[in-house]
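REQUEST FORM: STRUCTURE PREDICTION
Request ID: SP-0412
Submitted by: Lab K.M.
Chain count: 1
Length (residues): 420
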Amino acid sequence: MGERVAQQPRRVDDRSPERGLGGTLTAPRTLVPALLAAIAYVDPGNFGVNIASGAEHGYTLVWVVVFASCSAMVIQYLAAKLGMATGKSLAEHSAERYPGVGRVLLWAQAELVVVMTDLAEIVGGAIALKLLFDMPLMVGAVCVTAFSLVVLGLKVRGRSRFDSVVLVLLVVIIASLLWQVLIADIDRVALLRSVVPGPLEPSAALLAVGIVGATVMPHALHFHSAASRGRDDGSAPVTQAERLRAGRRTVRSVVIAMTVAGAANVSLVVFSAGLGSEAGSSIESAYAALAANSGQIAATMLAVALLASGLASTLVGVQTGDVVMAGFGRRPIAPLLRRLLAVVPALVILGFGVDPTSALVWSQVVLSFALPGTLIPLLLFTRDRALMGALVNHRLTTTAAALITAVIVGLCAYLVVSGG
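STATUS: Completed
RESULT:
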């Protein structure tokens, strides 16, 4: 039998510009989407839960941060290669594979994730504006909301602009947090011991679940699968060799990005633990303690990092909302209306005077409970050889992802049972 000759696909090379969510990309094609997704791992929700955990429990929960960061490497790798192998996002696959009631339920779960993420972005940005400019929380929330609407209106589609802005903000966040660690009073022996998993006290269960939700972000999986799709026409690497090369690059890129994000999260726990009881359990009290112990410059850098986190997360959040709506929606809601609906909970919470750091922590807890609804479909898709081809999961990868999902479900169940 003669083999049909097809047009030779254009070779994907690390140095060649590719197209993703909408524009040119001049850096390695797999690294930039991974770094953009990493923004979700250093969003204001991470600031809230990690600062609270360090202030209340010292280094005790560092092992949870490490576990969550390592889990994120595995899960983000699955999301990236799903988009790369198929040219479709996780939301698109979910809508196609589970029509009817399944699609509606998964869509509702994804929109809840977007709403909780928006809540963290807006509340975190409002806290930062209050710390930097003494702006009332409600006014700050409106300012951050206005920024997100401007982003939506401008449709930051040129990758050269979108990527550059987000990556600069990521550098600001990482540099500011690492500086806090350099000037912090660290018990290195206790820190190293805390990396080893230990018993989880009921009083720490809420924060542990919040850390997982803040680190293994469900919306980042939707975003990363879309950002890794390749060219604007939705095409993906075609030949087996091309896919395997892309898979190896993806592993390296995800490890780099998640290591950066993991270091930032550990930094938040470490510097707040160094402040001790003075840090209280809120971002505002940690800011005050940092100013008193290390000077106003250090405290200002923390607030700047929080603001950069809120703005960067807003940029990625707007894109993620588009990805979810495009994937699940057959009758899409107007983007402006959808965005306004998504930010209402944050404005209502602040309007009722709820403690902003508590709101951040609880938003991340909700994300943890929503994680299985994203992880299970992702795992089923990426273990499907007919769908993934050469990039199908290795049995060890599937086992690791299944164990991660089981541990996350177990943590959520422990929180419920312990009444934390």
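NOTES: Confidence is low (pLDDT under 50) at residues 1-27, 231-236.
Reviewed by: T.R.
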